[in-house]
Amino acid sequence: MGALRIAVVFSESLMLEGLAAFLREMQDMEVTSLDPSQPDAATRLRQLCPEVIIVDGEGVGQWPDLTLPQLLVGNPEAKLIDVNRHINQIAVYERHTVRVGTIDDLLATFGTRDSAREGEVDA
Q: Which CATH number covers residue 35?
């Protein structure tokens, strides 16, 4: 199995810069750092086809092509990890695409048990 492809997107975050350096030392990880202020950052990110994208959501949101929704759309196979260093929290996002043919298919994506309709009561 090949190395896990990780992109770390940051401009002025010493924490993410340190995280990228740390991950580079680990086996089976191919880590690329990207500066979101570069005009080709979104294109380069798509070309990398990373399996994991680590971002500072506050900093990345300054660039229209690199908002969290844009990152998910442009990199549909990647797991997106948003590091919020101010509150010591990370959020993990993954994009899931589901074909929906009926309303029951749609309701099933909500995570209900068998169907949202099971709770219907006959009058």
A: 3.40.50.2300
pLDDT, tens digit (0-9, with 9 covering 90-100), for 42-63: 899 989 999 999 988 666 667 7
* Cβ contacts of 117 within 8 Å, gap of 6 or more: 104, 107
Q: What share of the chain is helix, strand, coil (3-state, %, to 5)?
A: 35, 25, 40
pLDDT digits (tens, 9 = 90+) for 2-25: 899 999 988 777 878 888 999 999
Cα angle value 68/73/77 (rounded, 5°)? 100
Q: Would 77 be classed as within a structural domain?
A: yes
Question: Could you tell me the two tokens for 1?
Answer: 């199995």
pLDDT in tens, 67-93: 888 888 888 889 999 888 777 888 898
How far is Cα 66 from Cα 69, in angstroms, rounded to an integer?
8
